[in-house]
Amino acid sequence: MVLTEFTGAHVTDDATDRQTGPGRRLRVCMLTTFYPPYNFGGDGIGVQRLAAAFARRGHSVTVVHDADAFLALNGGIEPAPATPIRGVAVVTLKSRLGLISPLLTQQLGRPVVHRQTLHTLLGDGFDVTFFHNISLVGGPALLREGRGVTLYEAHEHWLVCPTHVLWRYNRERCDARDCVRCVLSYHRPPQLWRSTGLLERELDNVDAFIAKSAFSRDKHHEFGFPRDMEVIPYFLPQDTAGADPVAEAPSPHSRPFFLFVGRLEKIKGLEDVIPSFAGTDGPDLLIAGEGDHAASLRSLAADMPRVRFLGRVPGDQLGSYYHHALALIVPSVCFETFGIIIIEAFRKGTPVIARRLGPFPEIVETADAGLLFENRAELEAAMHELAEFPERREALADSGRRAFAEHWSEEAVMPQYLDLIRRMASAKGEQSIVDALASGGPA
What we know:
Helices cover 35% and strands 16% of the residues. By secondary structure, the chain is α/β, with parallel strands linked by helices. It folds into 2 domains: 264 residues, Rossmann fold; 164 residues, Glycogen Phosphorylase B (Rossmann fold, 3-Layer(aba) Sandwich), CATH 3.40.50. The strands form 5 sheets. A 7-stranded parallel β-sheet has the order 5-4-3-6-7-10-11. α1 links the parallel β3 and β4. α14 runs parallel beside α15 and α15 runs antiparallel to α16.
């Protein structure tokens, strides 16, 4: 594959990408603000998994992301390089203007610095354009640049919320709009474009919108989003066949433990969990993650020997913690769009104890692989049940493994994406895309 550098970006120039006829591979472009290694949270990892899944099916994938946005939020520190994925070309947008580039996009809702680069890239004959988190890579005006079948995947609630998370005044769940005051409470400048109708005018450039859960779809509509949304959940690759080395290895912790995985932020709700681990009797709480709320949480747990902070745990080590945990605790107090860590736990045969909020009930109840809580008493009752009755834990663990394979494995979810592309291509008269997917070729 030949890489050509221009305007701070890299693009592919591969003649095999332009094949036509039955069995040809699709050319897919994905646009997102964050993408590993320039990534925070789960949305960039979800995009990476989706790109890899298309590539594994023989399709050509180009991912476009904005490094300046990540660096501005990461103190200018470059991340360690990521391992390339076969079949996935990565275009990294970077400007000498640094923070100014994503700030202009955030304010004006359009790709100011990288406009020509993006226009050139997206004019290159893609069959499918996936818009993911485009808040800082191009804003709503980027939607007009899509080619072929155009899809928007709502990893957060950015379409209806300037803060993305429906967490009003940085202290409570949002149930009514007060966007300007709310954004100012985050010490961020208001987004000027949100008062111009720009987003609403650009929505018609998208063929289909994807929500990650039925809850998120309904929450978008509750806050006024005018378009229908398909529900396609996150997925994970199936564990490889054969013996699981994680299952055969000893536990990474010498005592029974419950597990928390995620960024240490106020919206993740750990303040409601840590007090339940006071004293010296009972299982420990292991906390995997870092974030701007870490110091406050460590102070809260200062006199609690059963609470252990692991810091950031690499993904290849996290599986052992999942597998050996009594349960994963998911206490978020905000409106999540999904819960990737929940299906990570199910894949390893680990039950979940989740707050009865947002999409968590639909995931846990679909799997029949966990318990829900609303208050401290219910949380402690759930922990007691799984710690003291191992047969109950094992029954939930088995349900989680089965449900993961049926609902959230790559093999279960990718056909939903391909079916959506087929339907949208058929509706637009893009017969070559329909034929490519129906031919028994790479798809």
